[in-house]
């Protein structure tokens, strides 16, 4: 199939698409959610995560509608080009006259007329993978395109910083923790010894250095996640999450639960907001997920089912955690609560498996996200017809991709804050602002050539413009609220 900037990929069923979307959304953010739930209170957390799940679902339908609109525009332009070429080959006029007519006719001839003449052809079929960056280039002005790339670059930096911190933390806890079952639930400090005179913080930085040296070189080349590696990491994820839920439920059912979370604590809301936004993030990868689905008639129902399933999963994981463990002992990375508490899990092999679970799953994603960020940097500064010098292309771009997140991870390993800030700022842009702007501009962009009778079969259920403005106002309010809270918190210190 011609015309796409990126390959569509091998087609798969709607069920496989549901599984892929679940695996994409449920990741590192889920492991930081229990502590955020405990800090905000169980009633507030339940209400907020339900509302944010609904908002994320709404903007997901916006992106799917924008993808269909982008496909329609690409088909229109291709049909327009074919008409120009046909006119060039048959017309008695000069080439200049033919091109001039070809450029002036499209705005006056609605796309609907071509739909009718084409019979069964639906221009809104999603068959070409149009990434968010390409949609931004199609529907936004230059400033909007640059703002999009800046937003996604900041988000990917935050993602890499979270990953760069999560792996060394897990390695440090496994290497430095007391796994003899005599230590109980102990919360260690960074200054506590790990090996001899080496503190836990120093051990963390050693592991960060090893992590960077092992995975950093992939940023200088192209990395691609294989299908079998994805299956393996997905299987490990399901096993680990299922184990944690069952173990926590068993302990609670025996009356041994230590958690007594408050119903509401507003001081924990800003961070919970960021964690929840981050944990529902999938909008930037929807083109890669939705386009290969072979039968898209029920893609709307597929997405809704996925969000209901994920919401239930998050609530189950977090509620079992906050009632099983004392809030003060919950780790930033929830898996670590099972490595130092033998009352919950006294099988050493399984405790090590849960402790090292983030290492295996996150390490496979780090090079891919890093290469994605590097490519976005290249796209942001790319000019038509221009090429980068070898040093800039092969050295400068990989370095500006790798150094900042590793530097952030070197100075802080507070995963809850990293996830909260990434989700609250860049996540708000990608999950709320960009989808709302894409669907709004896409509708306005195609209006002159669509004809009012044409219907986008992938149109969002929230088709009224009220919902677009509601999302934008909500996003702006959230940014103001989170920023004000950070300022007030810092002022009190």
Automatic annotation (TrEMBL):
Gene Ontology CC: one annotated term: membrane
Compositional bias annotation for Basic and acidic residues: 98-108
Amino acid transporter transmembrane domain span: 13-67, 222-440
Pfam families in alphabetical order: Aa_trans
Membrane-topology descriptor: Multi-pass membrane protein
Keywords: Glycoprotein, Membrane, Transmembrane, Transmembrane helix
Domain of life: Eukaryota
Biased composition, class Acidic residues, residue ranges: 82-97
Record's subcellular location: Membrane
Region listing for Disordered, in residue ranges: 81-110
Family matches, as PANTHER family: TRANSMEMBRANE PROTEIN 104, TRANSMEMBRANE PROTEIN 104-RELATED
UniProt protein name: Transmembrane protein 104
Species this chain originates from: Takifugu rubripes (Japanese pufferfish)
Name of the coding gene: tmem104
């Amino acid at each position: 199939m011609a015309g796409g900037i990126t390959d569509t990929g091998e087609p798969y069923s709607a069920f496989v698409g549901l599984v892929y979307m679940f695996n994409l959304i449920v990741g590192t953010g889920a492991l930081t959610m229990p502590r955020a739930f405990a800090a905000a209170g169980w009633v507030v957390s339940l209400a907020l995560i339900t509302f944010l799940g609904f908002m994320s679902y709404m903007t997901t339908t916006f992106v799917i509608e924008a993808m269909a609109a982008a496909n329609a525009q690409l088909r229109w332009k291709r049909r327009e080009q074919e008409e120009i070429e046909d006119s060039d080959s048959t017309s008695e006029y000069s080439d200049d006259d033919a091109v001039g007519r070809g450029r002036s006719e499209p705005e006056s001839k609605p796309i609907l007329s071509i739909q009718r003449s084409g019979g069964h052809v639906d221009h809104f079929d999603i068959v070409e993978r149009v990434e968010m960056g390409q949609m931004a280039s199609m529907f936004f002005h230059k400033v909007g395109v640059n703002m999009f790339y800046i937003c996604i670059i900041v988000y990917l930096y935050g993602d890499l910083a979270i990953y760069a911190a999560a792996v060394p933390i897990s390695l440090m806890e496994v290497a430095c923790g007391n796994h003899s079952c005599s230590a109980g639930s102990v919360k260690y400090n960074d200054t506590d010894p790990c090996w001899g005179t080496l503190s836990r913080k120093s051990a963390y930085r050693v592991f960060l250095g090893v992590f960077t040296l092992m995975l950093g070189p992939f940023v200088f080349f192209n990395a691609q996640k294989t299908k079998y590696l994805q299956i393996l990491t997905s299987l490990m994820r399901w096993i680990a999450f299922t184990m944690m839920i069952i173990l926590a439920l068993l302990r609670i059912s025996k009356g041994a639960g230590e958690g007594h979370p408050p119903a509401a604590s507003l001081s924990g809301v800003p961070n919970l907001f960021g964690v929840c936004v981050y944990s529902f993030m999938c909008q930037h990868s929807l083109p890669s997920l939705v386009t290969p689905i072979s039968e898209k008639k029920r893609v709307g129902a597929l997405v809704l089912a996925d969000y209901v399933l994920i919401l239930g999963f998050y609530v189950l994981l977090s509620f079992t955690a906050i009632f099983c463990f004392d809030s003060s002992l919950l780790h930033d990375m929830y898996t670590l609560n099972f490595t130092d508490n033998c009352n919950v899990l006294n099988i050493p092999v399984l405790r090590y498996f849960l402790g090292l679970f983030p290492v295996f799953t996150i390490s496979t994603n780090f090079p891919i996200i890093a290469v994605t960020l590097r490519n976005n940097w290249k796209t942001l500064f790319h000019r038509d017809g221009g090429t980068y010098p070898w040093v800039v292309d092969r050295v400068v771009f990989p370095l500006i991709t790798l150094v900042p997140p590793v530097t952030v991870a070197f100075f802080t390993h507070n995963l809850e804050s990293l996830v909260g800030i990434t989700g609250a700022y860049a996540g708000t842009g990608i999950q709320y602002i960009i989808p709302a702007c894409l669907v709004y501009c896409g509708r306005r962009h195609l209006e002159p050539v669509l004809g009012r009778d044409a219907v986008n079969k992938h149109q969002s259920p929230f088709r009224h413009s009220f919902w677009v403005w509601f999302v934008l106002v909500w996003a702006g309010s959230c940014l103001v609220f989170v920023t004000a809270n950070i300022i007030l918190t810092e002022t009190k210190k």
